[in-house]
Amino acid sequence: MFSIDQILIVLFGGGCGAVSRYVLTTWIASKYGAYFPFGTLFVNVAGCFVMGFFMMLTTDRFTVSTNLRLLVTVGFLGGLTTFSSFGYETMQFLREGDLVNAFMNMGANLFIGLLALWLGILTAKLI
Length: 127
Known about the structure:
127 residues; 0% strand; mainly alpha
């Protein structure tokens, strides 16, 4: 089961991740435009990289507490990554009949995200 301490840890991490997502996606949209959801793509790819990196380090190299794992993975990365936003943005492209951007968004998030996860694992193995 879970404790109130663990819930508070996830709450704190999730809040930090959500604020980070908001700041990053807003900044990226202001810099590169909002015609394609580059901000969502960025946070999803970054979240995949950090998940791969963190999990590789903390399962193969270093022992960390359950609370730290909850803070980073379930909390921060759960608040940072935006699969629901990705789904909504993809559906908007489909509703508008913009199949090119819909499939580009799906492919980019899936393949670049998995590549980032793999790179995170490889980077952690180098440490």
